[in-house]
Write a structure and sequence with these properties.
The chain is an alpha+beta fold. The chain is built from 16 helices and five strands. α1 runs parallel beside α3 (about 35-50) and α2 packs antiparallel against α3 (about 35-50). The longest helix has 21 residues, at about 145-165. The radius of gyration is 25 Å and the shape is elongated.
Length: about 375
């Protein structure tokens, strides 16, 4: 019979973190001075999203053993989640003092370089990719039960892909062939994570697969905006990491639209109510500008959305252009702005792509 720590490790590998915590807490009196107990319990709390309880147990573990690479890696992850990147980096460097080839610490430092600002870290916490900086749990035993089925059905799935996928929404004339991004048998069988408490959208497996297939369909219909929204829905959901990775790969095929090619426009009300669902989507909004600031190679202004007739303002959004030539906008006239939805400092902004003002109105013709 496995001891409590081994049971908890097995449960964590199965992504059953609440069960692991329950098992360990029920045997706490037997492990009063055990480093492995406090570290394992802290790790279970960390993966469950309870960083406060995780920190308490990690501190107990460190009182017993100071130099443990996995413990320092876990504590650094807590600082990283809080946006305290300097402290996290110091912990990673401390690991190299006694384990100079530690691959997990090097991977975490790469993560900090690529996603080091607070807003990006918040997104990584929301979509679960921050877990790449956690001490790894190892192979998920639940996947073993699907391995035989996957092997048996693999050949059949390949044949079906050849016969049917080129005719459907993963491959169409004029756009990239996304057949390599189709969901595998295993991904279809296990589309959701066990713990969905930390995600914006708690979707069923069928909802995840439906959104993914819709995104691919929209892509082949040149409706990249609609595809981006479905991909965002999955990235902010309880979908598995492998499905989210395929979403990011699909996003690499999406292209910026023009005023004429934008097929799916979203209103200010839609975007403002759920900005995470529309990140990196493009919108065509009209209104008037104010509070403009022009630099040598940049221009920013407030767009009063819906105020082109000077009657009602749907909302105010900051628009930033950082490319040449700098747009010339007459603040006394209505304007249309095509921009990409982004968030800065917790506020909705547009990364401007192009503007349009009527030449007739501008010159009084």
């Amino acid at each position: 019979m496995k001891n409590a720590i081994d049971q908890a490790i097995y449960l964590m590998r199965c992504r059953k973190f609440a069960d692991a915590i329950s098992v360990l807490n029920s045997r706490r009196e037997n492990y009063e001075d055990s480093f492995d107990f406090y570290y394992t319990l802290g790790l279970a709390f960390l993966y469950a999203g309870d960083t406060g309880s995780a920190s308490i147990n990690f501190n107990h573990a460190r009182e017993i053993k100071i130099n443990d690479a996995n413990l320092l890696l876990a504590q650094a992850a807590i600082f990283l989640r809080r946006g305290e990147t300097d402290r996290a980096v110091q912990y990673y460097l401390d690991i190299f003092d006694f384990d100079e080839d530690n691959k997990d610490a090097r991977r975490a430092l790469t993560f900090v370089r690529e996603h080091g600002n607070y807003e990006e870290i918040c997104r990584c916490v929301d979509d679960g990719s921050i877990e790449t900086c956690y001490p790894p749990l190892g192979f998920n035993p639940r996947h073993v039960r699907n391995l035989v089925l996957a092997l048996l059905l693999g050949a059949l799935a390949g044949c079906l892909a050849v016969l049917f996928w080129p005719r459907n929404h993963f491959a169409a004339k004029g756009r990239a062939d996304l057949s390599s991004l189709m969901l595998t048998v295993s991904e279809n069988a296990n589309a959701t994570e066990e713990n969905s408490a930390n995600f914006k959208f708690n979707l069923s497996a069928n909802e995840i697969k439906s959104s993914y297939n819709s995104a691919a369909k929209y892509f082949q219909e040149f409706r990249d905006n609609a595809a981006q929204r479905e991909l965002n829905r999955i990235l902010n959901s309880n979908a598995t990491r492998s499905i989210k990775q395929k979403c990011r790969e699909m996003m690499g095929y999406l292209r910026a639209p023009t005023f004429d090619s934008l097929k799916d426009n979203f209103s200010y009300e839609q975007v403002a109510s759920q900005p995470e669902l529309y990140l990196d989507c493009y919108v065509d909004w009209s209104g008037r500008v104010s509070n403009s600031v022009q630099g040598e190679d940049s221009y920013a202004c407030d767009l009063l959305v819906g105020y082109e007739d000077m009657k009602n303002v749907e909302g105010i959004v900051r628009v930033e252009f950082d490319f040449l030539p700098i747009p010339q906008i007459d603040s006394s006239l209505p304007v249309r702005v095509l921009g990409k939805v982004s968030v800065s400092g917790g506020k909705l902004i547009l990364q401007g792509r192009s503007v349009y003002q009527s030449v007739k109105n501008a010159y009084g013709e």
